[in-house]
Design a protein that fits this description.
Distance between the termini: 66 Å
Radius of gyration: 16 Å
Helix content: 25-40%
Largest sheet: 5 strands, antiparallel
Strand order of the largest sheet: 1-2-3-5-4
Order of helices and strands: HHEEEHHEE
Length: 129
């Protein structure tokens, strides 16, 4: 049991080692609960921002642990990241699932391995005359 705790802490440290203060601060602006989006390759975790039109997306916890373990075992040389396009597709699917099918992802970037942030825009609703 102690070995599992140490391994988990080691993986978490590996994943958070590259996080900047700014990215950590940004991650704290997302609200819970987490939304699980099932895609063909994985079940992604999606968080809605409290006030912005943005989403934070991460692979499943199992995939995240595997990424951390592979990077730790190879001293960061292995590039085992989930491709941005798969994370973006999960973000777009979350918009559809949450009744925002008309909204589109406009940009995205790596927030902290393996978390991506995606911004979206929704069509404005014209007032009915």
């Amino acid at each position: 049991m102690t070995l599992k705790i140490i391994a988990g802490a080691s993986i978490a440290a590996t994943l958070s080692a590259c996080a900047t203060t700014e990215s950590m601060s940004r991650m704290n602006t997302y609200k819970f609960p987490v939304h699980h989006v099932k895609m063909a390759d994985d079940t992604y975790r999606v968080y809605d921002h409290k006030t912005d039109n943005s989403l934070m997306v991460a692979p499943s916890l199992g995939t995240t642990v595997a990424i951390g373990a592979a990077q730790g075992a190879t001293l960061g040389l292995a590039d085992t990241m989930t491709p941005e396009q798969k994370l973006e597709a999960a973000a777009q699917q979350h918009l559809v699932n949450s009744g925002r099918a008309g909204c589109k992802i406009t940009r995205g970037y790596l927030l902290q391995k393996p978390l991506y942030e995606f911004w979206f825009e929704c069509p404005s609703v014209a007032p009915k005359v």
